[in-house]
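## Example record

The block below lists the input lines for one assembly entry, exactly as stored, with component labels intact.
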Amino acid sequence: GQNIDQPTEMTATEGAIVQINCTYQTSGFNGLFWYQQHAGEAPTFLSYNVLDGLEEKGRFSSFLSRSKGYSYLLLKELQMKDSASYLCAVRLSGGSYIPTFGRGTSLIVHP
Amino acid sequence: DTGVSQNPRHKITKRGQNVTFRCDPISEHNRLYWYRQTLGQGPEFLTYFQNEAQLEKSRLLSDRFSAERPKGSFSTLEIQRTEQGDSAMYLCASSPGTGIEKLFFGSGTQLSVL
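Predicted structure tokens for the full assembly:
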């Protein structure tokens, strides 16, 4: 089966940096996504990694190590609007395009 | 690009009733997904279409759940004989069939079974 682990909740201060980790154990791998979901809203795409290394996009960066089954999402210069759930999703190899989601990490940013 | 549209936004029903939800994907997207999400959990995959073909349906939660995409455009998800445990947010997503295949989600249908 598939197992995707993320911390349930994290808190951070406005202006700080926070790292949200995701570990996965899956039968095959064909990419890892990070999505942001504000309360009561739909998930929206943040980043995608399929090769090892760091992908940077503005204040957000995502890292992948396939050998360790590990990814993290790094959020810099935190803003209050970054308070949301962050979902890690793994897509398996084998022709299926279906991402499997972790339970999400609820990030609370306080002043 | 008007985004993925889901109707209704909210549905309240009594246990035992049938409900149907509709999803209109982004027009040029040929892949369409249904997920279910409960409070504090990530989206749970239910089923997936490529054009009108339902390629994966083994993860539908029971035989009370069914989905269609008759002309490869909009899709419907039906739950028959609803149970209180079916209360959840039902999310639809579409993807273009090319590139990294990121999902574009609709705002969901919140189902409450009384």
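The interface with chain A takes residues 4, 31, 33, 35, 40-45, 48, 56, 91, 95, 100-108 of chain B (CB under 8 Å). The mean pLDDT of chain B is 93.
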